[in-house]
Design goal:
Chain lengths: 288, 75
């Protein structure tokens, strides 16, 4: 947490190796953010964007009505806009500046999710609606729509792996590999730690509840479509669809994607370990 | 995706990979072709009776309408 002049509080967050700066003149908001994102605070650096948080008492930007929580977002090459009930904002990527107008009770988290969904995509990565775990220094991703079993597999893995998240992870990819990154965003398993860790991604599993544990390779086209469908916010924007499909194709060609049939016990790790255990590239001489 | 068509509905929990027939019906559902014209094209391109093509096309279009992917209009 850095303090600059005029009582402006500047907080740097490091999420998936992106630094983002949040600035506010509210000491209470700064403290809330520092506490909430304690494992993701950075000392400074060169932020991809600086977001000014404007606390506006009584502010409401959408009428609160029963039904699904509404988050409106739009995207262009130069920026994005965001609106929900108690907060609205925008980021201009040409100036690397943004703002979020907020009701005092509003939280920044949904805005950050939208920002990171767009940011990762531009870099060939993905914010994925998925659980992320690290086991033996390798990253594993379990994904599917709500109810598929992300939180369940995460809970069942508590003594088997390091939990990054039961809800959202970031994948950043280069030519040869993808890296799994933890994010601070909370899912249903709210008492789970949100580890600021990373690991080379070894496999991706689309969850399917069943009466037995087994893996089934997903055809490439299905794997790509499933990844696209599990990319929050940006999947709804037609203008981003080509880029999104291209990124998901790259991921599905770089990392194996399987359908994981599972039941409610942690026996799926035995199946995963057997499938992905390291096999020597060449048999030793005179091995008989 | 690599020459195959996929239907992804943002609010649904499933994705649908369309086969060649489904892809063709979807492509021809452009507001310009009538259902009869789509059935004609399916019958022309695939080894299938017109009755079967009509039945399958109507069933597929009804499913797309149910999923709010398209609207069928009387003309």
């Amino acid at each position: 947490l850095n303090y600059s002049s005029d009582n402006l509080h500047v907080i740097h967050l490091d999420i998936a190796d992106y630094t983002i700066a949040l600035q506010t003149d509210s000491a209470a908001m700064a403290e809330r953010l520092r506490s909430r994102y304690i494992d993701f605070l950075a000392d400074g650096g060169d932020p991809v964007a600086t977001i000014t948080l404007n606390i506006i008492p009584g502010a409401e930007f959408l009428e609160l009505i029963p039904g699904p929580w509404i988050i409106e977002s739009s995207y262009s090459e130069n920026g994005l806009t965001y609106r929900s009930y108690l907060e609205q904002g925008a980021v201009d990527w040409t100036t690397r500046q943004g703002y979020l107008d907020m009701h005092p009770e509003a939280h920044i988290e949904n805005f950050l999710r939208v920002v990171f969904a767009w940011l990762c995509l531009q870099d060939g990565g993905l914010l994925l609606h998925a659980a992320g775990l690290i086991r033996d220094d390798a990253g594993y991703v379990f994904f599917g729509p709500s109810g598929a079993g992300k939180t369940t597999t995460t809970r069942l893995s508590a003594d088997q792996a390091e939990i990054l998240s039961d809800d959202l992870v970031i994948l950043r990819c280069t030519d040869g590999e993808c890296i799994l990154h933890g994010v601070p965003f909370k899912g249903d398993y709210s008492d789970a730690p949100r580890a600021n860790q990373r690991a080379p991604l070894r496999a991706i599993f689309r969850l399917k509840q069943d009466s037995a544990h087994y893996l089934e390779p997903l055809p490439h086209v299905t794997a790509v479509a499933e990844l696209v469908a599990s990319s929050p916010f940006i999947v709804r924007d037609l203008g981003l669809s080509q880029k999104l499909i291209s990124v998901c194709q790259h991921i599905a060609k770089t990392v194996p994607v399987h359908l994981m049939h599972f039941r409610r016990d942690n026996g799926f790790w035995r199946v995963i370990d057997e499938h992905f255990q390291d096999v020597p590239e060449t048999a030793p001489a005179n091995s008989w | 995706v690599d020459g195959e068509a996929v239907l992804i509905l943002a609010d649904a929990s499933e994705i649908n990979v369309l086969n060649r027939v489904g892809s063709l019906i979807f492509e021809l559902s452009d507001g310009a072709h009538s259902v009869n014209e789509i059935v004609d094209e399916i019958t022309r391109q695939f080894d299938i009776s017109r009755e079967q093509a009509e039945s399958d096309t109507l069933a597929f279009l009804a499913e797309l309408e149910k999923q709010r992917v398209l609207l069928l209009e009387q003309r």
